[in-house]
Input
Amino acid sequence: MKIYTGQANSPYWVVAQELGRELVRRHPGWGLTVDPVATDGSADNLYRLQDDGAAACSLAMVQLNVAVDATFGIYQFDYQSAARFRRGTLNQVNRLRTLGPAYFDLVHVIVRRGEVSNLRDLCGRTVSGGLELSGSLQMNDVLFDNVCALTPPALPLPHVVYQSLGEGMGSLTDPASAADPVQAVVWVAAPSEVLDERIRRLGGAAGDLQLLPIDQYREGFGTHWDRYYERVAGAGFVRRDGAPGIFADRTIAGGTYTGMNQPTPTVGAPNGLVVRDSVDPGLAVAAARIMADRPWLAGVLGQAAPAAVAHAHSDALESDADAGDGEYRQLWRNPVFCLVPVLPAVATALREYTSQQRCGLS
Output
């Protein structure tokens, strides 16, 4: 089987590696071999699920808002946008199903201290937004639509360059060596050792970097989502109406990254496993049960996180598993599942959680 992930050593990559090992451990009689595949990110992963010959044994770790785009043929899945992306053709990816939520990816906006003080300073400047088919790029564009275009007075959108995390950080920290130097790097992921490793390479210059707070734009994210997807999805759309929106307020803890000691309020986007509807149901249920094992997932995310916060991150997820109405149950009520439904076999197996959903549909 294959698990499509994201950039090598990213949190998605670490989760996929450990998910594969845990599937083999829990089901020794299945004779599984598991191949985690490094990719550009969420949109790339969903395109790879289109191969019906492999779809029965393929899982994709993705931002769930990107799965909605794929289902409705929007943005990275809109054939009219092909000129913007290096992929030769773009198309809607149909018959997608989720296996439930995992956790929230956090939006990181990294800048050089003293050169940029707030997000609107980046309007009209150059930003490293992630690879063309990544979830980071999708969130980058939504973020700056709200910051620059929809917040009066309107300002020009940033010039976005498509780069891996390593390329973006190199351009930000050593602009003299870059053909197109950037003033910010956008990275959307759980707290990431792969990012902290890049920062530690700077030595004493690590203190020259900072994370920008973006929490004031979270409501704009939700409003933008409601207006756009209500038009696109029609009867299947569920307005927030006081319920949790697709995006959430989150904080990057102080000390998560070397030299960045203040907490940074930010926005979280939900992620999870996505499949085609032809996936083997037994495999899907097994994977979903592992991802629902919050102590297991906490330990894995602790491996992916910078050492300074690994235990704190793990403790937060473990305590959530014990809460009667904790984050995990709230994740199941996310309206994304009304647009990309849960695979029926998983909905039955995890009835304790799927019964939380309120989609207004049978």
Q: What stands out?
A: Residues 11-26 form the longest helix (16 residues). The mean pLDDT is 89. The two ends are 32 Å apart (CA to CA). The CA atoms of residues 33 and 284 lie 15 Å apart.
